[in-house]
# Entry
Amino acid sequence: DVKVTQSSRYLVKRTGEKVFLECVQDMDHENMFWYRQDPGLGLRLIYFSYDVKMKEKGDIPEGYSVSREKKERFSLILESASTNQTSMYLCASSSQGTSGANVLTFGAGSRLTVL
Amino acid sequence: AQSVTQPDIHITVSEGASLELRCNYSYGATPYLFWYVQSPGQGLQLLLKYFSGDTLVQGIKGFEAEFKRSQSSFNLRKPSVHWSDAAEYFCAVGPGTYKYIFGTGTRLKVLA
# Structure
């Protein structure tokens, strides 16, 4: 059935560690996204990618980078984790639908705690 | 500025009662509109979407939403709520390409 898989559901890291969050989709979607979800703030876009090796900054890219070497895989990287990056991270993918709009399909999320 | 407002942070209803979740948006052009549901510990699942045409759209799990351009609203409704509907609901608007704006969510509690 699915679709968008985030390999790590729960992670606990220490301040200063490098963190990789992996996302894989099996729907051959062109677009992939990383969101951050915090209570009371909804979802905020960190980065997105519309093609292999292409990436665009979202609304809150500071402290994050991404990598897309293959169409199905989109990685979020925290070069030096900080406590304010403790959050739920959601990966999503989409394609150009026939109706002209992209519908996002989400993974189950990765809850990161930085100590 | 573009924004989505979900004015109700929490809503509690009894099982079998009707439900309406509010969503208001501010957007320069005609938006694409979405409602997503998030069960505890899970990602977001699409309930329904509006692109054009009939302003009353039907979704999964018995939900529907009505687009009212004059009020800049896209409220979600369900005539009879089930205990399994307890979740968090997100309204989103977008241009149909990459950048979507999500509301802050409404958490629904269902009383038995």
Residues 37 and 92 of chain B are 11 Å apart (CA to CA). The longest strand of chain B covers residues 87-94.
